[in-house]
TrEMBL record:
Gene Ontology terms: biological process: mismatch repair
Originating organism: Actinosynnema mirum (strain ATCC 29888 / DSM 43827 / JCM 3225 / NBRC 14064 / NCIMB 13271 / NRRL B-12336 / IMRU 3971 / 101)
Family according to the record: Belongs to the Vsr family.
Source taxon at top rank: Bacteria
Name of protein: DNA mismatch endonuclease Vsr
């Protein structure tokens, strides 16, 4: 990956970015709980695979990932920074590739991955997750 040269302001701003328990994660979990679903947070769905899901439904093998529009290259809201553009493009593309690989690894292990963008309405996203969980109940007994 290309070398990153940042200013102190950029470094400080990036260090304040939360990686867990973000507003959308908490809102999504609240909606999932309201729908009667119980789950674990910030767990590795598959042992030996260093990928952590934001919400995990173990019995039905559903892993939920809440992806930030900038960090994961949202096709609707993602942006390409002009400063250090080569670095950020490589970083975001690597994140996308890792996300695709994670989905593949989970599928091979019998898990379903559900991806939620940070801009999605939490209630709508929670309903999509609920459908995935309910759709897998009984099939994995």
């Amino acid at each position: 990956m290309p070398e990153l040269e940042t200013t102190d302001d950029v470094r400080a701003r990036m260090s304040r970015q939360r990686s867990r328990d973000t507003g959308i994660e908490v809102a999504l979990r609240r909606e999932l709980h309201r729908l009667g679903l119980r789950y674990r947070v910030h767990r590795r769905p598959v042992r030996g695979v260093r990928r952590e899901a934001d919400v995990v439904f173990g019995p039905t093998r559903v892993a939920v990932f809440v992806d930030g529009c900038f960090w994961h290259g949202c096709p609707e809201h993602g942006t390409w920074p002009k400063r250090n553009g080569e670095f950020w493009r490589a970083k975001i593309e690597a994140n996308r590739a890792r996300d695709a690989n994670t989905d593949l690894v989970l599928a091979e292990a019998g898990w379903a991955a559900v991806r939620v963008w940070e801009h999605e309405d939490p209630a709508v996203a929670a309903e999509r997750v609920r459908e995935a969980v309910l759709g897998r109940r009984g099939r994995l007994a």
